[in-house]
């Protein structure tokens, strides 16, 4: 009875992990695709882009926030795919800060609603002044640093999965190239959205692996013999 319960529990966790990774990627890409377009990175342009299309900006913010949060849950669950010591340390060293960074960015996106309100409720110069004053506060560094560290952490995590035999070397290679391209492209538009989608392909495959390893025969084969406990 106990063994069957453990197998069923592990199967459910892997199904949920696969769903979180795949749906997280879909929602995140949809969030980037719905970011209101802007011509440059100036504060006034950024606030105007959000404030002039509040409906689209709110939709994008919700999708981005939920997408990052779901991916963070998926990353934590996917660590159980590593069976044994090989690749385990690299996977954990990458997955933990990556998930933490995703949660951090998910919360940061909530500020988009205040940016919309700034543009719609204040003159342009006042809105920019308040926005830039908030961005200049030292505490915002915590969100900036954790957000950027998330990207190299994901690369380290993927290398760990390669070492563990869960993914092939194509995964960190594709992710690494796409990550460089993501930071080299404009922040808004179909180009960065497409690059982000390519960058997250390894996470989708990781989700598929989780579904594959949720099969009863696979879970049963992973059980530790009683003599080895």
How is the topology of this model organized?
Blueprint: H1 2-33, H2 43-52, H3 54-78, H4 88-108, H5 111-121, H6 124-135, H7 140-163, H8 170-184, H9 190-199, H10 201-212, H11 216-221
Helix pairs in contact: 1-3, 1-9, 1-10, 2-3, 2-5, 2-6, 3-4, 4-7, 5-6, 7-8, 8-9
What do you see in this structure?
The protein contains 11 helices and no strands. It has helices at 2-33, 43-52, 54-78, 88-108, 111-121, 124-135, 140-163, 170-184, 190-199, 201-212, 216-221. It starts with a helix and ends in an 8-residue tail after the last helix. Helix content is 78%, strand content 0%. α2 packs across α3 (54-78), α4 (88-108) packs antiparallel against α7 (140-163) and α7 runs antiparallel to α8. With 229 residues, the protein is mainly α. Keywords: Membrane, Transmembrane, Transmembrane helix. The chain crosses the membrane at residues 15-35, 55-76, 88-110, 141-159, 166-184, 190-208. This is DUF4386 family protein.
């Amino acid at each position: 009875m106990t063994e069957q319960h453990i197998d069923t529990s592990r199967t459910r966790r892997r199904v949920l992990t696969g769903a979180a990774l795949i749906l997280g990627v879909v929602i995140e890409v949809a969030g980037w695709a719905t970011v209101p377009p802007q011509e440059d990175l100036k504060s006034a342009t950024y606030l105007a882009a959000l404030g002039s299309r509040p409906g689209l900006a709110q939709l994008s913010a919700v999708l981005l926030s939920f997408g990052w949060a779901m991916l963070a849950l998926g990353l934590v669950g996917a660590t159980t795919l590593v069976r044994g010591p090989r690749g385990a340390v690299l996977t954990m060293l990458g997955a933990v800060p990556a998930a933490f960074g995703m949660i951090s960015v998910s919360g940061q996106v909530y500020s988009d609603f205040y940016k919309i309100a700034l543009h719609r409720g204040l003159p342009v110069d006042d809105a920019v002044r308040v926005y830039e004053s908030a961005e200049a506060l030292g505490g915002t560094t915590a969100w900036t640093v954790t957000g950027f560290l998330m990207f190299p952490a994901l690369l380290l995590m993927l290398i760990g999965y390669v070492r563990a035999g869960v993914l092939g070397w194509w995964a960190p290679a594709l992710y690494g190239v796409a990550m460089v391209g993501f930071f080299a492209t404009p922040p808004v538009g179909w180009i960065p959205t497409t690059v982000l989608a390519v960058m997250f392909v390894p996470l989708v495959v990781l989700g598929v692996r989780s579904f594959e390893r949720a099969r009863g025969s696979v879970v049963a084969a992973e059980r530790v013999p009683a003599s080895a406990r």
